[in-house]
Amino acid sequence: MEAKWSLSRLFTTDHRAIARLYFFLSLGAVLLGMALSLVMRFHLVRPDAQVGWFAALWPVGASGGVMTPELYLSLLTLHGTIMVFFVLTLAPLSAFGNLVLPEQLGARSMAFPKLNALSFWITFASFLVLLASCAVAGGGPLSGWTAYPPLSAVGAIAGPGEGAGQTLWFVSIGLFCAGAMLTSINVISTVLDCRGPGMTLMRMPLTCWNWFATAVLSLLSFPVLLAAGMLILLDRLGGTSFFLPAGMLIGDEKMAHAGGSPLLWQHLFWFFGHPEVYIAILPGMGIVSHILATFARKPVFGYRAMVSASFAISFLGMLVWGHHMFISGLSPYSAIAFSLLTMAIGAPSAVKTFNWIATAWNGRLRLTTAMLFALGFVSIFVTGGLSGLFLGQPEIDAYFHDTYFVVAHFHLIMGIAALFGIFAATFYWFPILFGRLLNERLGKVHFYLTFIGAYATFGPMHFAGFAGNPRRYADFTTFDFLQPVLPLQKWITHAAYFLAASQLVFLWNLVWSICRGERAAGNVWESTSLEWCGPNESTAVHCGPYEFNGATEGRDYRMQNEA
Amino acid sequence: MLFGLILLLLTLAGCLLFAFPPVWFPPSITAEALAWDGQFRRTLWICGAIFVCAQLLIGWTVLRGRSRRGAGAGSHGHRGLEAGWISVTALLFLSLAVAGSRGWARGSTGLAGKEVIDVYAHQFAWTFRYAGPDGIFGHTATEFINDSGGNPAGLDPADPAARDDITAANLRIPAGRDVLLRLHSRDVIHDFFVRELRTKQDIVPGMEIPLELHVDKPGTYEIACAELCGLGHSQMRSLLIVLPAAEYERWKQERWKQEPRQ
Question: In A, which residues are within 8 Å of B141 by CB distance?
Answer without folding.
Answer: 247
